[in-house]
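Listing S7. Sequence submitted for prediction.
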Amino acid sequence: MIGTKYRNAGAIAMSLAVAVMVASPADARRGGSFGSRGSRTAVAPPATKTAPNQAPAVQRTTTQNQAPAQNSAAAARPAPNSPNRFGGLAKGLIGGLIAGGLLGMLLGNGFGALNGSGMLMALLQIALLAGLAWFAFKLFRRRPAMAAAGAMAPSGFTTNAFTGTSQGGFGGAAPPTAPAASVSWEIAITTSDQQSFERLLTEVQDAFGREDYARLRACTTPEIMSYLAEEMSQNATRGQRNEVSRTELLDADVAEAWTEDGTDYATIAMRYQSIDVMRDRNSGAVVKGDPDHPTTTTELWTFVRDGRSDWRLSAIQEA
């Protein structure tokens, strides 16, 4: 009886293992979200037409979490309920002028050299006080406005937008979003950038399928390279190889694009198809996937560059 129980348990466990293998997708790197998006790593990117579902924030990353902060333009603006830096002083001066003038009229001394009596002199003094009060108010209102204007973004930065192109599958842009952390500015994505993103999609997929470590290092950041190398090593340990070929971009649009600390970032929603199968390393037999029919995948890829380098892949997120 005990032997029968163990045989039944073994049969059930084997059936569950087969079911999991059949249900698991064969797409490369389907292991969650990983990489870095600068100060926005811990913030979920906005939804787009290509990826309408809200993608989670990056799960595996070497970037430390940063608390969201206002950009410099927002920080320069005073809080709605906080007093203006010069407000107290201006109000004090205005109040002092008015109180002093009224007190002088009540005592019959007037205002400086305009002492006298009668309704005409009183009206004249009130008009003079009102003019001084208006001048002081305008003077102190102008200074904080000039300070806030000086902290606004440089005119060279604009909100990102894809205008659409017949090649590469890129569509319209998502609405611009406010910076999520640190000091960052939205930037524009050009047609040349779009072509670079499409090329990197194909090159990274093909290099991963060929286990071309040198090419992957050229197309990705060291962090992303470490995650991809880890996955290829795990496949090799199981005696398998993830073969990816015939990658084709179907649709793409910008989720967000920004610059911070001299580094540009662009998170792109991509829907693409590819032949993605798992093969036995020795026999070449297909272990998982369909070598004759492509599968469709939607992911958010983040690219990074600085002034001395081209775009490179820095994060992948499931959509």
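Caption to Listing S7: primary sequence and predicted structure tokens for the chain studied. The longest helix spans residues 119-150. Residues 101 and 126 are 8 Å apart (CA to CA).
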